[in-house]
Each structure stands twice: as C-alpha cells, then as structure tokens.
Design a protein that fits this description.
Helix content: 40-55%
Number of helices: 19
Structural class: alpha/beta
Strand content: 5-15%
Distance between the termini: 42 Å
Strand order of the largest sheet: 2-1-3-4
Order of helices and strands: HHHHEHEHHHEHEHHHHEHEHHHEHEH
Shape: globular
Largest sheet: 4 strands, parallel
Radius of gyration: 21 Å
Number of strands: 8
Length: about 425
Amino acid sequence: MADEKYDYVPMWEGLGMDVKAHDGLLAAVGQMYGDAFLTQKNRPASTAYLDGVANNLHSGRIRELVDGRNAGDPKKVIGTFCLYVPEEVITAAGAVEVGLCAGADWQPDEAERYVPRNTCPLIKGFMGFKLGRVCPYIESADLVVGENTCDGKKKAYEQFGKLKPTYVMDVPHVRTDETRQVWRNEVRRLARRIEQETGQQITAESLHAGIKLANDKRRALQRLYRVRSACPAPISGLDSLLTVQAAFMDDSARLTMAINAMAEECEQRVRDGVGVAPKGAKRILYTGTPMAVPNWKLFNIIEKSGAVVVGEECCTGSRYYKDLVSEEGTTVDQMLDDIADRYLNIQCAIFSPNKGREEDVIRMAREQHADGIIDCSLQFCTLYDMESFGMQEAAREAGIPFMHVSTDYGSDDDGQLKTRIQAFVEML
C-alpha cells in the first residue's frame, strides 16, 4: 500500500514522467473517484481495499515494481492492452503484467499527431498518456504487447512502436480448426518473445503456477459475480467494475485474497438481507466496450439514477473471469495449448459471426435477474456499434428491455445520458 510519508517524486522523475502534469492528472482522478465511489451509501466494509488500490495505483504499486528491480529481483514489466495477451505466459517467464489502457482524455491534440481525430477515445487516451508522460505503468514497461483486435488499435500500434518497444500478437477473427492452430502458434511465439525479454525459460512448473495464480483470481471474481444475483444486490456495479479494473494492475495473490473477502462479506449481507441499493431497485446488465481506469462515468450515472448494475459482459467484466484454463496439462506444450484455447473463447466483437456474445449477454441477464440491458460503445468504435443491432434483436427475442448508447470520456454528454438513462430506468 502507499506510504504517505514516502516521497514518490524522485521515483516518477526517474521513470521520465512529467511530474507537474501527473500531479494534475492525479488531482482530477481523485476528484472523480471521490464523486463516484465515496458518495455511495452502505458499501461493504471490505471495499475499503479498493479505496486503497485506487490511492495506491500510481504510487505504492509502482514502487513495488521499481523496488523489486533495485533489490536484485529483476522482474521485467510487460504492458498490455487487451485480454487476449495471456497473463499466465508472462508470469511463467518471471515478468509482471500490467494493463495500460487509458480511460481518460489526455493531450488529445498531441495524440492526433499520430492517430486521426475520429479515433476511439481508448486509443487516443493511451497515445495521449504516453506522449504526456503521465502514466507510470507505460513508462515502467520494458515491453508493450499489443494485439490486432480492431483496425484502429492495429494501426495505432505502428505509431506507438515509435515511442515504446512494442510487440503485436495476431488474433484470429474467425473460429475454425485452422485458426485455432494459428492462435496456438501465436501464443508460442509470444512465449518465446517474453523468454527473450526476461532471460528466463518457461518451465512446466512455472507455467502451471502461472495458470493456478490466474485461475484463483478468476474463481474469486466468479464467486463475487454469483453473489450479485441476490436481491437486494449486496455490492454496487461501480465497486464490482473497479475490482476487475484492479485485476489488471494489482498484485494477483493479494487481490485474490481481497476479492474473496469481499465475496464472503457479500454472502453474509445476502443472508442478512442487506443491499447496497434498496430492494426493488432496477437491475441493469451492462455490455459493450471495456471501461478502463478511470472511466467510471456510465456506471456512476446508472447508479445515481436509482438503478444498480448487477453484471458486466465486457473485457472489464465477465470476459476476464468467465472461463478457466485447464489445470490438467503436464507439459509446457499442453499447457500453452490449453491457454490458447481458453483465450480464443473470449467473446470479443472482433469475431464474425459472434453469436456467442449475444448468448452470454442473455444468459447473464437471466442469471442476474436483470430488468434491462444497457449496451455501450465508445465513439468511433464501429465493431460495437455494428453489433448493437444484433444485440438489440437478441434482447427483443428474450423479452428483455434494451438500450444502446454511444459516448466518450468527456462530460459534454452527461446531461443527455442522464436523461436517457433515467427515462429507461423509469420505463422498467
């Protein structure tokens, strides 16, 4: 955790950050966090861990990474942007994975020197964070691993690679026996590249340990997800979202313990009939584009409108923890195949056809007793905008009210979103 007496400025300066600009970012994010999270009523006491994570993200957690190197534990830091980069492989090679996606606008004018103006906010965000030198995760990363999920990211990595050492994985966009083998080869190629970066060979023992570590985190998140099916919901969508966001940055073993503690408290709250929202509050299932830190805007509006988010079908939600990697493999090759097969089953909008995502959304809506579905795409995200039509039809056939919204990271459309969401909740 962050030490308030510790002077983090020399550490940030040593990473090459713009400390003055970074102070401005932290102040803005702190205000956003307080307005969204600390105004919630009747939060589980165990969510105090999340407050610590939020306070610690750019300070104590970064110090852990930096001090590990300085103490003779030369763990390389691998930055990633997507769920398709297997954390098990990175862990097995003795490195630490951290998420780099940016959930806020930063220096968009500078970012537009490298990417078009009409690029999705997530891409412009991580370009702006790098150009502005305000993200210690980007600055501390020894290698960045991207993936060619959408056209925007694929081309943006060509530009980002001019600013930071970058390696790109080739993700199939259809599922066939042939593409499964192609993807398995990609995972092996990544393993070799990470071994080259760390100088540490992946062994059957280290890979099995990496699988177990990631699976334990997923099991804890699955446990927390299941308890949210209760009415009243024992924990907010905001806190649940932050829990998955933390999974991309926090120490895995430590966070797993904290998630299990939250799940245990929530299970007791269910037995006691205690909820974070009143019984009868309308229950919303979220689906759509990921919500990277500090993008809490939509969830905050939904829950301030009197509803409660009870599930998230997105990359910062169920796609992260829904499936486990088999723990039956005994050789490195077997385990790499198991890892590849698990990750190929992530229901991203890049796939065509993609009925699996529609099926997951309807299944989750029923599991969580959702009254309605809110589907969101970030502006200029053609993939999720296109999929909203099929998603709306699937919801109609299932008899579940549905609303699609498109937004960005700014506050200009807050009023419009509030009006639309409040009307949707009232209609439910």
